[in-house]
Amino acid sequence: MALFCCLLMWNSGAGQGYYQIGEGAIYFKSDAPLELIEASSDKLRGLINPADNSFAFAVKLNTFQGFNSPLQREHFNENYMESKKYPEATFSGKIIENVDLSQPGTYTIRAKGKLNIHGVEQERIIKSEVVSGKKGLEVVSSFTVLLEEHDITIPKIVYQKIAEEIEVQIRATLLK
Q1: Among 2.40.128.110, 2.60.120.1440, 2.60.120.560, 3.30.70.3270, what is the CATH number of 2-9+18-175?
Q2: Which residues lie below 8 Å from residue 137, measured CB to CB, with a gap of 6+?
């Protein structure tokens, strides 16, 4: 619910003092024995509230592009992610460190929150590098997602083509 409220404020232009994504991209890689699958989306949305160090990020799953073929993208959306039933992946929570992001500098922070993929929430702590400057924040993060933790099953017939652990990278510019 907090994610919805934050993103609603972001979409309506309210919430002054928040840092909101001006540009954001998310990339994933499945490096399995028989196939490398890569895709990305430049439709990452999100914001950070520096008053209480809370954050909320979301991406619509059907915005991912790349893949090795159109059929692979179709299988990603229909068979694995079930994008019609679970249209978004989200991550919301709080920054653990007590940092003042309005002060210029480079910070290594830990974001603790709920990662929701495929309708399954998992509590996660994800490390990120944050560079604070005059115009806003640059956020870079890399982490992995275990498919099993989000009830995403891999059929035996393609088990060697889809990795059980997916690498994820995020880059975002957040403006005040």
Answers
A1: 2.40.128.110
A2: 19, 48, 101, 130, 131, 172, 173, 174
* pLDDT tens for each residue of 79-90: 899 999 999 999
- The enclosing H or E element of 127 equals strand 120-132
Q: Which residues contact 99 (CB under 8 A, 6 or more apart)?
A: 53, 107, 109, 130
Amino acid at 87: P
**What confidence tens digit (pLDDT) does each residue in 110-136 have?**
999 999 999 999 999 999 999 999 889
Pick from 126, 169, 166: nearest CA to 150: 166
Q: C-alpha distances in angstroms, 61 versus 15, 27, 49, 55, 175?
A: 26, 11, 24, 20, 24
The DSSP-derived string for 18-72 is: -EEEEEEEEEEEEE-SS-EEEEEES--EEEEETTTTEEEEEEEGGG-EE-SSHHH
